[in-house]
Design brief:
6 helices; alpha/beta; 6 strands; Mannitol-specific EII, Chain A
Length: about 160
């Protein structure tokens, strides 16, 4: 499985509107309101926000990867958002974020969830990749940037 297997044009927000950490997490989760893979959207929201209380998923370099695991979905979910403004996120490096990748895993797919988190982290750790995302203005551009970057990785 690749990130691109999960991420599609409908799950990308090129201009996040949220002003706070919780706002942007909710904005991304709301993309799944009509998704047939979701059994209970509120439980998805709760799982991600509960995980965030344990430790911030703002990993540094302007990037956050909010995530959680729940049986309120039938399959792994992913969404990506980019903000034109900086969002205070209680990041590990103390800096705000403007790139947010949401990943929601199913309780019984822990291994795949961890491998995907690792892949996303490796991708986002590359300055050139992040800079391309920051410069993108449309969902199509963002998806293409992920596609080109992921050509360098094996299947998860």
């Amino acid at each position: 499985m690749k990130v691109l297997d999960l991420l599609n044009i409908n799950f990308i927000i090129p201009h996040l509107q949220g002003q706070t950490k919780e706002d942007v997490i909710n904005e991304l989760i709301d993309l799944f309101k009509e998704d047939p893979r979701v059994i209970d959207l509120q439980k998805v929201r709760d799982a991600v926000l509960e995980r965030e209380k344990i430790m911030s998923t703002g990993v540094g370099k302007g990037f956050a990867i909010p995530h959680g695991k729940t049986n309120a979905i039938n399959d792994i979910l992913a969404a990506f958002g980019k903000s034109n403004h900086l969002i205070e996120y209680d990041s590990l490096d103390g800096h705000p974020v403007n790139l947010v990748f949401l990943l929601v895993g199913k309780d019984n797919l822990v291994s795949k969830h961890i491998k995907l988190l690792s892949r996303i982290s490796r991708m986002m750790n590359k300055d050139e990749f992040r800079n391309k995302l920051i410069g993108a203005t449309t969902s199509e551009e963002i998806l293409e940037i992920f596609k080109k970057e992921e050509e360098n990785y094996f299947e998860v």
